[in-house]
Specification:
- By secondary structure, this protein is an alpha+beta fold.
- It has 3 domains: 48 residues, no CATH class; 70 residues, no CATH class; 76 residues, SH3 type barrels (Roll), CATH 2.30.30.
- Helix content is 37%, strand content 17%.
- The chain has a 5-stranded antiparallel sheet with strand order 4-3-2-1-5, with no helix packed on it.
- A hairpin with a 2-residue loop joins strand 2 and strand 3.
- Helix 1 runs antiparallel to helix 2.
- The longest helix has 18 residues.
- The chain is globular, with a radius of gyration of 19 Å.
C-alpha cells in the first residue's frame, strides 16, 4: 500500500469507530496520521536517518526525556545545559550516562523533530521565539489527500507565543512569520492544532 492508501484506510477506520460508538480521540487520530506522514516524508526523499533517541534504553530514555522537560520548564535549553556541564566537567546527574556512553556525536545528532516520535512527551519541547517550524496549509484551507488541494508545508519563524488561561483551562496561541514577511496566528498550537505544525525535517 502507498502512504496515501494507508491514510485513506485510516480515515475509513476512524469513521467505522465513530459508527460503532467507540470513537478515537483527536489526539489518537493525530498520532496515527503523523505516523503515515513520516512514511510519506521518507518516501519523498526526506532523510531516513535513524532517530538517535532510539539508541537509548527504556530507563535512559525516561531519564533523558525528564531532564529535557525539566530544563524547558526553567526556560533553559537542554542541549546547552549538557554542553556547559561537559565543558566545565560538571556531573550531569541522572543524564551523566549520555556523556559517558554516547558522547558529543550522539548529542549533535539529536534534533527537535526526533522528539515527535514520542508523542506522550509532546509538552517537553515548547516553542520559543525565533524557533523555525513548518506549518501546514490545512490551517487556512480545506485539504484532502484525494482532492485538488493537498497538504503542503511552509517554513516560518515563531515571533510570539501566548498562553491563555481561563480558570483551570489553558491553551497556547502562536504567531509565526513566513519568509515573505506575512504573519499568521495559530490558535491552540499544542492543543488542537498540533497536527498542523512540525519541526523542520532534515
Amino acid at each position: 500500500m502507498t502512504p496515501d492508501e494507508i491514510e485513506a484506510a485510516l480515515q475509513a477506520a476512524f469513521k467505522s469507530c465513530d459508527v460503532a460508538s467507540c470513537p478515537l480521540t483527536d489526539r489518537q487520530k493525530q498520532i496515527l496520521l503523523q505516523a503515515v506522514e513520516q512514511i510519506q516524508g521518507n518516501s519523498n526523499g526526506v532523510s531516513d536517518i535513524a532517530n538517535p533517541l532510539d539508541d537509548l534504553t527504556a530507563e535512559e530514555l525516561e531519564a533523558f526525556l525528564q531532564f529535557v522537560k525539566t530544563q524547558e520548564q526553567y526556560n533553559r535549553t537542554w542541549k546547552v545545559q549538557l554542553l556547559n556541564d561537559w565543558l566545565h566537567e560538571n556531573d550531569s546527574g541522572e543524564v551523566q550516562f549520555i556523556r559517558e556512553r554516547y558522547g558529543l556525536q550522539w548529542l549533535n545528532r539529536v534534533q527537535s523533530y526526533h522528539f515527535d516520535k514520542y508523542a506522550y512527551f509532546e509538552d517537553a519541547l515548547k516553542l520559543r521565539l525565533g524557533d523555525r517550524i513548518e506549518i501546514s496549509n490545512a490551517l487556512w484551507e480545506w485539504v484532502q489527500d484525494d482532492g485538488p488541494c493537498k497538504r503542503e508545508w511552509f517554513p516560518c519563524i515563531v515571533i510570539q507565543v501566548d498562553e491563555i488561561r481561563d480558570g483551570n483551562d489553558s491553551c497556547t496561541n502562536c504567531v509565526v512569520r513566513f519568509y515573505n514577511g506575512g504573519e499568521y496566528e495559530i490558535q491552540g498550537i499544542y492543543e488542537w492544532n498540533r497536527y498542523n505544525w512540525r519541526w523542520p525535517q532534515k
